[in-house]
Amino acid sequence: MPARTTNPHALAGVIARLNAEDYDRWAAQVRSTGGCRQPIHLRGKVDHYDRATGRLLHRYTTRTEPDGILRLPCKTRRASRCSACAEVYRADTYHLIRAGLIGGKGVPETVTAHPILFVTLTAPTFGAVHTRRDKHGKALPCHARRNGRTCPHGRVLSCMTKHSPEDPHLGEPLCPDCYDYTGSVLFNALAPLLWKRFADSLRRRLAKLGGLTLKELREHLTVSFAKVAEYQRRGVVHFHAVIRLDGASGPATSPPAWATTDVLSQAVQHSAHAVSAETPAIDNQPARLLKWGTQVDTRPITLEGDLTEQAVAGYIAKYATKAAECVGTLDRRINPLDNLDAYNLRDHPKRLITECLRLGSIDDLAELRLANWAHMLGFRGHFSTRSRRYSTTLGELRAAREHHARDHEITTGRLPLFEEDTVLVVSEWTYAGKGYSLADQLVAAAISGTPVPDLPGGA
Ligand SMILES: [Zn+2]
Ligand SMILES: [Zn+2]
Ligand SMILES: [Zn+2]
Q: Each residue of 362-396: pLDDT tens digit?
């Protein structure tokens, strides 16, 4: 067993579970959740009726299942919540990103001839933060300033440390009192709008470069993309995106000859610098325009060399399973009445959360719902999105897997094989909870060979 415990209650629970008459069925349920750490419990039944006669052909009910429930995987994308389900999400994301780069899953291989770029849009600066610098692989001091200038708060604005990659100070401001926490939080809140404006501007720019109107462009060219949000250590999001040019009907059609990788790159640079989002005037401060950072990285994706299609797909899939937890914030909603001191947060994430709660109480900013998204440091967008024609969808990948699982159930005799159009299926489900007891967590971990999270009383 991969975990031990000295908790007598848990031990008694483990022994009871292992000796239960329905243990085998329980273990089969656990196995079918694929090692999910917090399975959903459902109570209910599925009836199969003959459409012609109304006769009940077959009934499945959870009443005969162990504990009277069916356990299903939680399907979260968040690795911090359930590593097993996040791994399924990561692998699916990897395959659908890769299909959009080299074909497969319904995308023809000719897509490799289309202009494709890997683009990174970063946030602007909100004040100097501790960082790792190097030149030709040699570590350099964080902020070397010879004159040793001090800020209005009396802090010296230099740092001679060569920070290690694990240094908790990385991403933290040299002077927290000078740092623009308002700007950082508002940028996160407006980043989805900035992205939308960027995507709209990109289409307009491409139309202009091709000598077409926007309406005419649609008859010749589609811009397909897949993007993912990543938190930098300073607590602001930036976006990585695969941007591809297709013909009018998507990846199976070629874009016009004038739409080259160079033209796409020019258009990306133009649009990334052109767009902005305005914040209302608050705190007696005038309205401000937030824009992307000045560094806009556009790199071609190649089958060999620096940036391969596997590297890009792996990178996007990895960040699709993460959120802000790597910045040291909380992994759940924060109540404005919570005592933040009780959470043992570092000063920087705590100030970002506090600023979200403060700005969240200002009427003019109400629509940004900053208090609800304080644990995300203001960002409330999707972590991973794709345009309709990028490649296949997560839903299609899942449906294919479930179809396969169903065939398996039929061939192993668990589901009766009926002619689908002569049978009426009536199902009734209610949510009956989530997760495992401490004892079940230990047995489930042993069955699926997954590590057990910290257990109280564990030795
Ligand atoms: Zn799960
Ligand atoms: Zn430093
Ligand atoms: Zn200062």
A: 999 999 999 999 999 999 988 888 888 888 777 88
The DSSP result for 201-254, as a single string, is HHHHHHHHHTT--HHHHHTT-EEEEEEEEEE-TTS-EEEEEEEEEEBTTBTTSP
Cα 100 to averaged position of ligand 2 atoms, centre (Å): 40
Question: What DSSP state is assigned to residue 256?
Answer: P
Give 172 Cα–ligand 3 centroid separation in angstroms: 13
Q: Which two tokens stand for residue 32?
A: 């079918």
Distance 224 CA to ligand 1 centre (A): 31
Identity of the amino acid at 138? K
| CA 149 to centroid of ligand 2, rounded, Å | 15
Comparing 419 with 238, the larger pLDDT belongs to 238
- The number of helices, as runs of H, and strands, as runs of E, in the chain is 10, 13
The residues, any chain, with a CB within 8 Å of residue 277's CB and separated by 6 or more, are: 190, 193, 194, 197, 289, 290, 291
Can you tell me the distance from the alpha carbon of 362 to that of 366, in angstroms, rounded to the nearest whole number?
Answer: 6
Query: Based on C-alpha coordinates, what's the Rg of the chain?
Result: 27
Which H/E stretch holds residue 279? strand 277-279
Ligand nearest to the CA of 86: 1
pTM recorded for the entire structure: 0.83
Residue 206 in tokens? 């491409």
Task: Tell me which residues have their CB within 5 A of the ion that is ligand 1.
Answer: 36, 73-74, 82, 85
Q: How far is the CA of 129 from the centre of ligand 3 (A)?
A: 12
